[in-house]
Design brief:
about 80 residues; alpha+beta; Alpha-Beta Plaits; 5-stranded antiparallel beta sheet; two-stranded antiparallel ribbon; 2 helices; 7 strands; Ferredoxin
């Protein structure tokens, strides 16, 4: 399972940070940061979700008020949002 995070869309509410430790606050930017991720295009970051963190990552995606977080299964099908 993978998570995709669009940093440009993020408005810095940090709800994802409260739901999953894969996200941290960057107060200097006013944005969340997806830890251990790779930038795949300008402002879009992707990483694998550890199996034991899948539920937390899904909650993080669901709580994002601007849908900056997407979750994909191993076949590349978008699960959330």
């Amino acid at each position: 399972m993978k998570v995709e995070f669009d940093e440009d869309t993020c408005i810095g509410m940090y709800q994802c940070v409260a739901e999953w430790e894969g996200f941290t606050k960057d107060k200097s930017k006013g944005k969340a940061i997806l830890e251990d991720s790779e930038e795949v295009e300008d402002g879009v970051f992707v990483r694998e979700i550890p199996e034991d963190a899948e539920l937390d990552a899904k909650f993080a995606a669901r709580t994002c008020p601007v849908d900056a977080i997407k979750i994909y299964d191993d076949d590349g099908e978008q699960l959330i949002p």
